[in-house]
Amino acid sequence: MKRLQPSPLNSFYMKYTCCSEExxxxxxxHPTLNGIDFLExxxxxxxxxxxxxxxxxxxxxxxxxxxxxxxxxVIIEGGERITNIQVIDLYSGFGASPPSSPPLxxxxxxxxxxxxxxxxxxxxxxxxxxxxxxNPGNPSPPPGIDPIxxxxxxxxxxxxxxxxxxxxxxxxxxxxxxxxxxxxxAKDYASFRKLMLERLALLLPGWQEQxxxxxxxxxxxLLAYVGDHLSYQQxxxxxxxxxxxxxxxxxxxxxxRMVDYYMHDGSNARCWVQVQVKPGxxxxxxxxxxxxxRTKFITSDPDFPRVITFNSELxxxxxxxxxxxxxxxxxxxxxxxxxxxxxHTWGDRECCLPKGAKGATLQGKLENLKVGDxxxxxxxxxxxxxxxxxADPAHRHAVRITRxxxxxxxxxxxxxxxxxxxxxxxxxxxxxxxEWHDEDALPFPLCISSREGNQYFENVGVAWGNIVLADHGxxxxxxxxxxxxxxxxxxxxxxxxxxxxxxxxxxxxxxxxLLPPRYRPEFTAGVITQAAGYxxxxxxxxxxxxxxxxxxxxxxxxxxxxESTGLMWEPRRDLLNSNRNSRHxxxxxxxxxxxxxxxxxNKHGMRPPSGTVFKTHxxxxxxxxxxxxxxxxxxxxxxxxxxxxxxxxxxKVWNPLPARGGAEPEGMEEVRQKxxxxxxxxxxxxxxxxxxxxxxxxxxxxxRTAATYRWTGSWYTNFLTFDRFAGRPVDQEFENDMVRRxxxxxxxxxxxxVDAPRFVPLEVEMTxxxxxxxxxxxxxxxxxxxxxxxxxxDGSTGxxxxxxxxxxxxxxxxxxYAAAQAIPGVETLEFTKFQRWGNDNSEMLRTGKLILNRLExxxxxxxxxxxxxxxFNVLIT
Length: 877
Prior knowledge:
The protein is of the alpha+beta class.
């Protein structure tokens, strides 16, 4: 049974909506008045069906005596389908003799306050009203019954299952106000002022004041100013809502991010710096430092000493000048014998490292040279003059060592024009063999020794060590005198601006949800550094990859530290992947270079607590200003006691190569042109062609890829066959790397396998007839210089170089005829073999072409130790 209480809303005497019903308490305390407290509809499942919902128990506030009411004094009103319900019997007080017919479940509550009413039928689902009257001719309440509590609304179906709370919703209807007839096209100060003055003239005809000094006119003009400002804000919001009309760089950046296009904020530059030391400085641990005490390289000035200490007046003066500052990205141990390292040519003259070289031999046993070290191979003398000033500064190249080995030259000093003074005559000469990363292959031929007439020049090309990677930017942090954020403290919430609880009823007190204002501090220290990530632990990564990064993956070099707790906040490009507990923030840079910080909302990223004060750690310096030329750095700033206490140990600080990678922030118009195409990029591999294209684009060392789609018994597998540049092997390391790169594109339920290509060795033989006046050995040497698998001295590739072959390529004999005929000394020639190695077949020689299958790649190394890799023979007649 559900209890239904009378409500003043249904009273005959009043139509109020009240949040606190005090009438019952007043009647309860009155000496004579009584009234209805609530009503129950008897609907117990254990009662007979004909009895259910036909008995009403009317509970009174006070006791009622038996016979106090007759059935004519109780009427039931209302109903839609079932109306005119009649009272057939009632029992006042329910007393000691409850009715026995029909059978009824015992009531709850005090029986002396209950009026049991039997009706002829149960009602429908609508609302009914039980009312007490004096008699059928007089609708007034009976004597002693309060007129407000003489009726009660109820439903016969109150006990039926319901998904909703039985609590009655009490709400006051809002008054609908008639909107004034005003001009809604008013958008500026003048039109707002005119509009309000005209409205006042209509509402207050007697007010005719037009003097600007009048208080009323002043208020009108003040409101007109506010309206003009808000109108501008509306126009600005509408303008920034579209990428084509937005004027703020931050708006364009956010629009572009919605279509998966990252608008970059520029990048700082990187360069390789050499720190040369005297023998007394061997083993010096050159430390990177941390925070504002990070070691620094600054652009050269003849007035500065080579080594400068922190917290000195000179250093403070330097910071005020127009200089560029670089900071190392890792520590390094310095050795004097790494300053300059000479190549060993085994006694030969006029030698060079060819283009594409990936290894060399150095003089001496360089025991401190290790895998991961960076060397710069450089031309230091003019090959034709032997003069230092004639060296080509463009012939410098950085390489990462991947292998170091030690050996000896048994001929010793006899192989050198100028043997070192420390070398004992007649003893073997120690040497060091090095190899470097494939991606760092020499991009030009480097001359090692040369000759001009009868004069030989040694050490034309050398290797420089003690190389450290540095990037552009000055580390700084807040101090007691200055802060980089404005305002520095997170504001506290304003209750006036905080929202109330939505959905609260009229009688419920609305709670205020205190939300702190958006904290969008401005970064006032200068241009924040944007840098790509770097991990010095990856010693196997090439120099090429270190100096080439994606601008869209740079992040601002800034962290925030809560002064009270010491908790750190880190920067992110956006907060879409940040959870509610992530202490992340975004630095948004405008087109004038100013930057503001944006924090989360406790959904995507944490909102900083009110009253928090941040200490900012940051770096300054960005863009193309860091792309300095070679040799521009010349000074070192360090707080390492080993360095500044022995400044004479360091003999030179400079950058042999120019800095590179510095870029300005991406322009708004450029983003408008590119962002619309960003979401059209293929991000899922469905067909074999998709796998082939994505595989080639995902790795810089892939020349061509062939994809094959096969059923492998339980699922489909995509087999990817790779053709790497320079014929590099598809080893396990490369296979794991490619599977990792391509897994994000793979279709669910399909597998991925990486295969090596099927190399087809060739067998080519040619007969050459010499022109008169040429030697056979010279002509044959010239032919082999063209028909090989290496780089030629001029930097081009031989006809059998792996990069000239790829999958399913048809080889035409005419190409080789033309190349051979162009060699001086060749009068006539004829190819006598042009076939697959070990497969004698004249068909390909007759047709002049050799057709390969889809996954086959031609190969001809002409290595006598591995004839199965291809053979090339030349017969001179």
